[in-house]
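Raw record, unedited: PLP-dependent aminotransferase family protein
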Amino acid sequence: MSQLKTIQDERSPLWLPRLAAHGGPRFLQIADALQAAVVEGSLKPGDRLPPQRQLAAQLDVDLTTITRAYDEARRRNLLEGRGARGTYVAAPKVEFTSVLDLSMNTPPPPDGVDFDDMLRQGLSQVLMRADNDLLMTYHLGGGSDADRKAGAQWLAPMYGQLDPRHVVVCPGAQAAIAASILALTQPGDVILAEPTTYPGLRAAATQFGRHLIAVEADKHGMVPDMLEEACRRHKPGLVYLNPTLQNPTAATMPERRRRELAGIAQRCDVRIVEDDPYWLLADAPPPPIATFAPERVIYISTLSKCLTPGLRVAFVLVRDPHERERFLVALRSFALMVAPLTAALATQWILDGSADRLLEGVRKEACLRHRMARDIMAGRYSGAGDGLHVWLELPAYWTSSQLARAADGEGIAVTPAEVFATGDGSVNAIRISLGSIKDRERLRAGLQRLSQLLAGRPESFSAAVV
């Protein structure tokens, strides 16, 4: 029992951790000790834990520390409350699903960042400083002055100092894409995109009656000559690009290509929607396309891929005031505002530095997971070592749909290439997302099972019929 000691009194044994002066937050030390005791069997399901005040006195800590420790232990499914009867060690939860989700692009939980504590402190600061009535009423779209200031600070690594009036706060990147389509195009207009692109674009374009046409791309992204030809032929309403750690290929467009595409937008009088959710996760990315043609580009940066999807906050840079008003009118037609409470939380985190700490933790964890994927996938891995996903081209004996079905039979969810196809065809590949499985060892197990699957052939993995 490395972390616990037993103290006997006249009533019952009491399990106490040894609190280390430099062992991190005390409430986490207590929660870790409880978890260790459950794992090694020193504490068993149904054992009653001491009252919080009694434990606080035994450990010589304040009651709040014990409350936070018990809350953390409940979050880990270690404890359960039984009302006036007290707190007990919980029975292990039965896992009804063994699916390992490699299909959803979400930020991985960063090691060493106490997200629950950050959330509690952030909300506490918001509630202490804000007018609570304003947090629960209607707001005009576009964000408050403080929200736009936070947006300008979030965009500073890409652009330097910005005028906050040029920033619009949106309820997520998908809403920003939809508002851009409504503001910049008419029903029946053409939208140009790469042959393999974000599925949310196709969903919005189809819903609004726009035509999505693929423009040829190479390893550096959309081919400039092909874009110029398509602009002259189709007179598009806009061009959609995702140039940094592109979803799904994970390719980053070099600066020269960005300049070329910006120049074409200027010559052909076409708007670009630059959806750039992964720029802050990339290792030394080039400047955004919007820096080369600011009057031609609407730039979207969401917090969902860098911090957490639950905030539902994206910052959109629209420099032209008339275009910004059209964008806001379009946005209000289906999303009146960002939820004020989550917008205020995002603003609080950005202005007090919490967002930067969380972002750095996500970056480090993502890099660790890429190294894991590279080691397990060996010669098949072709990522750059950053971002949230890997684009895995398949051997000829697998099709992406075959592999996705076979992986599903093995309890693994992946995304086949056809989901991202803009045109009629698609490459033979799958996207593997590295952040959606919280536990690193479960991710390792999923990648190993997928690697074993790839080593075989489809005939070896026929599904059972029952």
